[in-house]
Specification:
Length: about 120
């Protein structure tokens, strides 16, 4: 996520992050990291959004976020996702990240899970 945020095209994202409360900023950094990691792992995925609480609320413990019920949107579809994201002590950068991509989320479940049909 550091490389993505350093890109001049991410100026607005950097400005937005600065306005968030600490926990929300950490979650958003981890969401960005998830999209970057998935994109690098498999180029056929083009993640454009992550919802860390689709089927279970994310858990924040210190500077670690565990999102066992996350989902991400790629190419007009939603997929299950689990991730564990470790941030630096100041909560401003990702220092460790693990993820597992799950199955395609059926369209009939999108509304129930709060997954928007359009980004």
């Amino acid at each position: 996520s550091a490389k993505t945020l350093a890109d001049p095209r991410s100026r607005q994202a950097r400005a937005d992050l600065a306005t968030f409360a600490s926990d929300e900023r950490m979650v958003q950094l981890c969401n960005l990291e998830a999209m970057d990691q998935i994109r690098r792992w498999r180029t056929d995925y083009q993640p454009e959004r992550v919802v860390p609480y689709a089927t279970a609320q994310e858990k924040i413990t210190g500077t670690t976020i565990a999102a066992n019920g996350a989902a991400f949107r790629s190419r007009r579809n939603w997929y299950g996702l689990k991730f564990r994201c470790q941030l630096a002590g100041d909560g401003e950068s990702v220092v460790g990240f693990e993820f597992l991509v799950g199955d395609l989320v059926p369209k009939e479940k999108w509304d129930e899970l709060g997954l928007p049909a359009v980004h």
